[in-house]
Each structure stands twice: as structure tokens, then as C-alpha cells.
Amino acid sequence: MKLTLSWLREHLDTDADIKVIESTLTNIGLEVESIEDRTEELKPFTVAKVINISKHPDADRLKICDVETIKGNFQVVCGAPNAKTGMLGVFAFENTYIPGTKIKLKKTKIRGVESCGMLVSEKEMGLSDEHEGIIEIDQKYKVGDSFSAIYGLDDPIIEINITPNRPDCLSVRGIARDLAASGIGSLKKQEIRKIKGTFNSPIKWQRKFNKDKDEEKLCPGVSGRLFKNVKNVE
After folding, report:
1. Which UniProt keyword terms apply here (predicted)?
2. Among 47, 46, 36, 43, which Cα is nearest to 5's?
3. How far apart are CA 79 and CA 132, in angstroms?
4. How confident is the model at residue 211 (pLDDT cuts 50, 70, 90)?
5. What is the pTM of this model?
6. In terms of CATH architecture, what is 42-150?
7. Distance in angstroms (rounded) separating the CA atoms of residues 152 and 146
8. Is the four-CA dihedral 103, 105, 106, 107 of positive or negative sign?
9. b vs e for 36-54, b when ≥16 Cβ sit within 10 Å of the residue's Cβ?
10. Residue 126: phi, psi to the nearest 5?
């Protein structure tokens, strides 16, 4: 079973970091198979803006990009066809480890033109095999913003091996409940969000008990969702 740390915190009020949560899960009998946390690896990558582009004097397919970063302006030689003036991209500074290629970036000369840093592609970030173009960031963000936060990659993914005797932990709330019982936080009150449907439900819901005062305690809430006209095709 996989869940993100932020998802767990929707149900568990805790200040515990990922290492404390991992050890607590182990102590209460839930085997943590892995934790994928790319926060530190992706920390150096930030949003940058291409402020000017000129042709490379010795290569038709290469461009010389003037790039505005949080640390100042840098010149980058880039071959991406989608590189254009005004776009926001993801910048890697000199000496940054590039996860997709497993190399440390160095200042270099490409066809005689100095290149300081890199505008990276999804492949270079280890996100996909896409390498024809560089990552383009929405204009609502600004220079210096964290790439990992924009892409939601600053949220650790926890994988837990749930054994057959622990069906109570086959939900995020079930795991949060056990962690709360262990003392590292408190279980948040569960809220049922009302979502307006597009057709009337053929099922009538009732929640009635003999003692009105016990209603909330006996059954905090009931929810259901009916989907119609779903086509399962490839």
C-alpha cells in the first residue's frame, strides 16, 4: 500500500518527521517496504526565465539563452526546440547532480560558446523519457520557485506491506488511527464532503437511532457515490 506524507497528515495531526513516522510504523507492526523522498535531490532545481535567445555562431540547431535565475543571469547553450524568449523553465546550476543522467553538471564550452548551467528536460529530471524539449513552467510561477514543490515531488511516498491479519490498515485513516494510538499525534475528525451530483440517487439514505444524542457517536457519517454510463475500454 502506498500513501504520501501529506495524505497521512490529512488524517493525523502530528509534527513528527518522516523518520519518526517510519520507525513508529515498524514498532507497531507495520512493515515499511520503502520511502521515496526526492526532496533533497531536487532542492537545487528552481524556476528560471529565458530573457533572450540568439543563434549559436557555429551550430544551426543550438541556441544561446540568457537565463534569469535566483542567483543572477547566466548564459546557457541549449538545443531544445521549444526554448523561447519569455518562457519559464527549470534551471540547474553548476555542480548540480542531474538525477536522470547521473552526472554532476560542469561549466563547459559547446562549440566554442561557454555554457553555465542547464535548462533541464523531464528525462534529465528522471520523470519520463521525454528529452526533445525542456520543461516549461506555467507563467503563474516566479523565478526562484521550487521545482519539486510545483510538481508535488516534495511529498515523500511511503510504501507499507499490509499483512492479511491487518485489514484495519488497508486505508490511510486506519494507519493514521494506529499512529495516533502510538502517541505521535492525534486523529483528526473526519469530514464528509458534500459533492453535488448530476442526477437523483435511486438509493435513499437514512441515519436514525432511538437516542438522538447518540447519533453522532454511533454513526458519524454515511457516504456513497453512484456512477452511471461508465465505459471500460482501452
Report:
1. RNA-binding, tRNA-binding
2. 36
3. 9
4. low
5. 0.70
6. Beta Barrel (2.40)
7. 10
8. positive
9. ebbeeebebbbbbbbeebe
10. 75, 25
